[in-house]
Design goal:
Helices cover 24% and strands 30% of the residues. By secondary structure, the protein is of the alpha+beta class.
């Protein structure tokens, strides 16, 4: 997989064989992986998260724990984005 950039332990790369898709990159720790984060680049110079299977799954599986820790740090104040 062609590496585009390296940032600490993270590599930003293209996954070969995705011709025809809009421009995007994958981000993984240390080496390319099928479950790497996928980020679409926008025509305005920004980017959008397409998916992040590993991290989003980890956060979802620990939803209750994270909310409990939030309450500890912010003294019971909690609200949700949606």
């Amino acid at each position: 997989m062609p590496r585009v950039l390296v940032f600490g332990a993270y590599i930003i790369f293209f996954w070969v064989g995705e011709n025809g898709e809009p421009v995007h990159v994958h981000v993984a720790e240390k080496k390319p992986s099928e479950n790497a984060t996928k980020i679409w680049l926008t025509s305005s110079g920004g980017c959008l998260l397409a998916h992040n299977r590993n991290i989003l799954e980890l956060i979802s599986l620990n939803h209750g724990y994270i909310c409990d820790k939030w309450r500890e740090v912010f003294h019971g104040d909690i609200s949700f984005y949606c």
